[in-house]
Amino acid sequence: MSDRSALLFEKLKELSIEVKTYVHPPLHTVEESQALRGTIPGAHTKNLFLRDRKDRHFLVTALEDAEIDLKSIHTLIGGSGRVSFGKADTMEAWLGVRPGAVTPFGAINDRDGHVKVILDEDLVKHDMVNAHPLHNEATTSLKTQDLIRFLEAVNHPPAILKVSL
Question: How many domains does the chain fold into?
């Protein structure tokens, strides 16, 4: 377990959030995740680290099979003009994660509030949600409401918006 993951799990424990973590080989894509995860219950996610023309950054978390229109999502999330994917080094500096391990748990590392977190409305309809614990060699399951509570506790109250098609 990385030092950052240890801090994450300490925070979850401090908040009395129950989690279950499943260790697995490194996963880099949704497709790899679908093939290897077995029967981990709950909603599985995909995460997009985006930036707009004004260099504002967004972390969009949706169901793994959600279709998201990158040409129009800026109108839904408050972006200025079309969005593109954020730079990997920026994501690592602010969220403490690398491509392939993007997760809403990364908000714990964004102490200066650079990134706006958005949860898709369809995702929050599920009781349980799964996300990487700051690395892609495990999946952590928790109640969706506890994920929201965690994000609020680390000063990233999520916007819950219908961003999937």
Answer: 1
